[in-house]
Amino acid sequence: MALLEKKVGRRNFLKGSAAAAAALAAAGIAGCAPNGKSGDELSDTGEGGSAHVVASDIDILEERGQWVPMCCNENCGGGCVNRGYLVDGVIVRQATDDTHEDTDGRPQQRSCPRGRSLRQQLYNADRLKYPMKRKSWQPGGGENSHGELRGKDEWERVSWDDALDLIAGELKRVYADYGPQAVMCNSWRWQPASNLLRAMGGAIMESNTESFGTWVFKPQCLGLNVVWGDHADLATVNDRYDMRNAEYIVFLGANTVWCNGITPNYYFKLAQEAGAKFVYINTSRNASVAAFDGRWIPARPGTDTALLLAVMYEMMRLDEERGDIIDWDFLNTYCVGFDLDHMPEDAELNECISEYVKGVYDGIPKTPEWASEICGTPVEDITFLAEIMGKNNKTMFLHSYAASRVNGAENLPQAFLTVGAMGGHMGKSGHACGASYSFDTADSGPWLYEYADVRGNTRLPDPYENNCIEGPMWWKSVLDGKYVSTCVTGHRENTESALTFHKAKEMPLDPHILFGFGQNFAQTRQDLNDFLKAIKVFDMVVACDIKSTLTVQYADFALPALTAWECNDDPDDGPVDWPLYRNGDKLSRRDLIRANWPCVKPVGEARSDVWILRALTEKVGLNVEDVFPYEFKTTFFDNLVGCQFLDKDGVTYKRLLTWTAEDSEKWGVDNPPQEGEMTLEEFIHAGCYVIEREPGDNYSFIGYKDYVDDPVANPRPSRSGKLELYCQLKADNFNVMEINPEPIKPYANYIVPIDGYEASFADWENKVKGEYPIQMYNHHYLRRSHTSFDNSAWLQEAFVNPVFINADDAAERGIADGDTVLVRSAYGKTVRNACVLSSIMPGTAALPHGAHSVIDDSDPDDVIDLGGNEQILYGPVQSNYFPHLGGYNSLLVELEKYDGEPLQEDYERDPFILGDEA
Q: pTM for the whole thing?
């Protein structure tokens, strides 16, 4: 039978014009319009409403439909559960997790404002519904491409066959004529798009650390955890019940209230009620500080390593004066390299971190006064941090990755580890040291469930080595026709893979095709000015997405992808198309199994990424089964029916779903009968299953406890098997690239950052400010997750996208709250309305990350982004030692009142629509 009992009630709408789509999306795809007409009547007449119109609940009250899961898969890590009310194939209302009692042991996984706007992701006016081709583009390359019209040209609707034939023809031509150095792939290596290009001979890939910053650089070298290959320092913090045993919870560069959804913050609130005091090291007194009545420790962007070095200095001073601050037993037993008496066997320098902090090697003691000049942190705050990091306090030291997305932060992970180790804050109740990020926030540890191992995402090997361009240099490399390679195939998991990185060497680049799946690279990658030039170079640009992103707008082909909530298993409704990854994803909380269930039919002719790629594989003449050796529907159900969770004994597993022969017949699959916790229908209706917990249960987790209990049986993944505060392999991995004449140290020495605070001065010694005296950082914002949700009119109105300015800096420049402000750097300009605050440090400003650009290039020599995308302010600037680092959290700018037209707010702007898809 069909996945959905009823056909899509709005087929005319979904096949209709963009104007009709805009009207209906603005009306919220109402089940009942304000004038009493049904949703289907609206779709037929084309009548619409405004973004403020709220759908009627008549459909729900009269039980015309059913509740289905709309799980949020947008990478914020909140693990929220959403449910949609489905009437005639259309979601007319949303609710959150409310099908079970809200208890401490099984809390409801409630949704944040972003998740509550999921309908606008599904039905928004800018939703891509059909394959589209830029009108002036023609195959064959060169002048046929009319690259100068990208971003300006008109669009035309084409069939899937025509689009895929044209794309396949260009792929074959370019590979035959120019080879793999002519094809550039903007997709993560683990995503399926890379498989097709590997099968054709390889492609140029991007290597960037835009999520994890410098923490992603060989964390195993230091003895830290790695999850899924590059998720660094996760699963090392204690679980949510032990959070309540902490006396202090100290955050470095985090704002969980904005970034991590509802449930993690509920757990932190319970810790606060149990007596934990919260401390936040950040550039602003953010929403989390206010929510948890925390103590704000101000620190300028990019100066966190200096701050932590001063904390080390104070801990040593206090320990020497009165003792009982440093946990010497922990340092001597579980770490190497703190002092010269406990060095690793492979150490090549007779140096250690404790002597460096004292100033033995450079004559500069890392005192609070030294750090305060750099960080702007009061001396008394540094001493306070040293006090509470002492071994007799139950302190949890937690970081997000914002502070490491800064040039010059190469040593921040090791400095953070060193401070945590000095207090012995690992392996015991109430103490922790590690990441508080995404799905691991506030409840760390291994997942309490697992799916059947049938994902089928076989990754083909890279036939083209040295194929990685560091993200900051991506667009400049296109313009230069060459790039510098420092690694073979990216970041490998093996601790000893030092040769993954090698001496920097120049490689040829002959760009003809830009292939984009699963990334909005134009909107999220630095150096937007060079992008606007480089995008004209290619013979063909392909973008696959669910909406009209900036990347899509500058492509030649816009291929409509499915959202997480769409699927078709009825051949009468078009090609059978199933999501492959939804049930295998563990981007969820450790005790939450979400019903990642496709609840509606595809909008228009949208297809899944894998359907598109399989079709392309066939058209280029390759064997589809060799490249994508899995079957969508079977994999989906095998994975789901095979899901199991840990029983209360913490050892044995129980099946989640009861499955019968009737279920197999109903859904057209062949899975054996089994007994489980609930039926599929119950699971779908609830939208999730939350594993019940209680204090002291067998699900408890204390980070590093196995290592602390028996370090010989449970060594860390470093060379020494211990936590390396001196790490020779870390230094060797950095220094082998030879991009900096001054070698980095094996311990956490201070590096003066490029585009950091010191660089804002024309004369540092005499404190004479330079042309760009303001440090800007780009924080995550409650309105969106990266660029996802940014097209929601509801969120645009609820959370405008200003530039946040310190009140003193604003007054000095004659800027008042609400004024339109020109933000300019050495590389570009953008315009935003000002939000003037006293809660952000003087000399700093903040621009929310991920806005959609509105390019004004009426003067080609003076391009301005009216949309507030921070990437136009960045140039091709690489980090001191780690060229892969996207160091976008410290940028030097100047702010001034804008003398042009007042800025239109984002919610007042028309949606970005490619053209009439009719």
A: 0.92
